[in-house]
Amino acid sequence: MPTFDRFCWHGADLHPQPLRGTTSLDFLHPRYIVFLTRRDMLRCHASREVTSMPVSTWTIDEPRKLSFDDPVAALQVRVVNGTVNVVGTDEPGARLEVSAIEGPPLIVTQEDGRLTVAYEDLPWQDLLRWLDPKGRRRSAVVSLVVPAASSVEVGVIGAGAVVSGISGRTEVCGITGDSTLVGLTGAVRGESVSGSLEAQGVTGDLRFQSVAGDLTVIDGSGTSVRAESVSGDMVLDVDPSGKPTDIRLTTVSGEIAIRLPHPADARVEANTASGAVSNAFEDLRVGGQWGAKKITGTLGAGTGTLRATTVSGSIALLRRPPAEDDAYAAEPTGKVL
Questions:
Q1: Which residue segment(s) compose the domain that 212 sits in?
Q2: Does 211 map to a domain?
Q3: b/e per residue, 133-172, with b = 16+ CB within 10 A?
Q4: Is residue 170 part of a domain?
Q5: Cα separation of 141 and 128, whole Å?
Q6: Domain annotation covers residue 176
Q7: Which of 31, 138, 254, 307 is the most buried (most CB within 10 A)?
Q8: Tens of pLDDT along the chain (337 residues)?
Q9: How many CB atoms lie within 10 A of CB 232?
Q10: Is the CB of residue 227 less than 8 Å from the CB of residue 197?
Q11: In degrees to the nearest 10, what's the CA dihedral of 174, 212, 224, 323?
């Protein structure tokens, strides 16, 4: 077989001979040698730059509406105070409405499928700079409609954020301010200092980290939930129609409450060092009378995983009724310590 070695193509039947004095070169068989120079590489790079989309920029210092005809594949929003609302749609373009703004203007840019709405002096990578006292004198109410498949990144301080109908990756970061996610089917990541995160009908993998922010999951049917917090509480309601889920929750002083479908399908291990435990499943064992307590066991086939740990907070495992009409028919029958 022909081989490609150090930018040289060697024919299958070539037998090169070394040079000896005035011995002439043997050209009985063709040779093909390709050299790639730096100028060639620069020319290729330049040709790619020519095909890139131009950058469009708008300065928003008063209420305004904008429409974007070019396709949007990624969205970045950074707002201090006010509200951010992002909605997914089947349309290829995007729409922006700033219904109220105070303080420095928002800079809107669109380049190579990426739409950015942000302040010029607040970078996404350095959230600590957002705590500057100057940020207290700014506020904006921003609404966006983007293609559902777009990736969405929202950063807020003191602002509420609502993201719905997105199937791409979603990331919400904030210092303060609560966030609500509705009907997201892509991967979700949330980071907060003191703001809470509520996820409704989220089917993608969920990651959450906070210092004092709470996490609430309603009708969650994703295959993975990972959450870590120092003092934030965690409340999860698992959708019975969802696939086996890998749930791992860790908090220092926050409380943990998880409502599982009945029948459930998971290997369970829940621990608390000094808090109370409540268990509504007869197949699970509750151990420990003083100090540390643990809930362990297997529900159903045990294909899913549930691990919950808190140091001083309480842990409650609740059983979801088969139907919402029977919500008061199924009373907890487990052991409460």
A1: 196-337
A2: yes
A3: eebeebbbbbbbbbbbebbbbbbbbbbbbbbbbbbbbbbb
A4: no
A5: 22
A6: no
A7: 254
A8: 433 333 333 334 434 444 444 444 444 444 444 444 444 444 434 444 444 557 899 999 999 999 999 999 999 999 999 999 999 999 888 999 999 999 999 999 999 999 999 998 876 555 555 555 554 689 999 999 999 999 999 999 999 999 999 999 999 999 889 999 999 999 999 999 999 999 999 999 999 999 999 999 999 999 999 999 999 999 999 887 767 789 999 999 999 999 998 888 899 999 999 999 999 999 999 998 778 999 999 999 999 999 999 999 999 999 988 755 444 334 444 433 3
A9: 26
A10: no
A11: -110
Q: Alpha-carbon distance 251 to 195, whole Å? A: 16
DSSP 3-state of 41: helix
Tokens representing residue 63 in the block: 């209420």
Alpha helices in the chain (DSSP H): 38-50
Give the number of domains in the chain.
2
Evaluate whether 88 touches 146 at the Cβ level (below 8 Å).
yes
Q: Whole-prediction pTM value?
A: 0.77
Contact 181, 217 (CB under 8 A): no
